[in-house]
Amino acid sequence: MNNSYILLRHAHSRFSSDDFNRTLSEKGFSSLEQLEFLNACKIDYFISSPYKRAFETVNSSPVQFDKIVLDNRLRERKLSSRFIEDTEFEKTIQYLWQNPDKSLIGGESNREALNRILDLFADLEERYSDKTILLSSHGNLLGILINHFDSSFDYEKWEQMTFPDCFLIDRNGIVKRIMKD
């Protein structure tokens, strides 16, 4: 790879059926101070999901940046065209992790979501070299991406991700969690 990537999972958000406009919760806003360590990372570019909670995580944090570019390929993975109840959510995610080519009605499979974010990676790899690029997105999509680089990152490790959380994919494709506990 030409670049290294910091994967930032958004901070805790308020539940809403309007997935696009879900904002960070008070807990989410108060957790953003944990991201101050990113200022030492010398990040060249900031790219975010257009979903409000992912954008707010970068924009409201103490991380210093010049500009945040929104890219729809970092949007949350669509599970289904029908509402998934909280009681169904974990079983649904687990099923999709175990069956990466399967999808629910109107939803994306893990493979489709992975191909979407890998398309972004291909564009960034073609456009830049020796840069550090922060991608602010969602746990489901980032977990699928991390699994692509590190097959030991499975459903159980996805469940352990925090709000927010940070991982580094270095130029050798090695993934390392860099979030300060």
From TrEMBL:
- State a single Pfam family of this protein: His_Phos_1
CDD domains given in the database record? HP_PGM_like
User: What molecular function terms (GO) are annotated for this protein?
Assistant: isomerase activity
Q: Which UniProt keywords apply?
A: Isomerase
Q: What is its EC number?
A: 5.4.2.1
What InterPro entries would the database entry show? His_Pase_superF_clade-1, His_PPase_superfam
Lineage top rank: taxon? Bacteria
Q: What is this protein called?
A: Phosphoglycerate mutase family protein
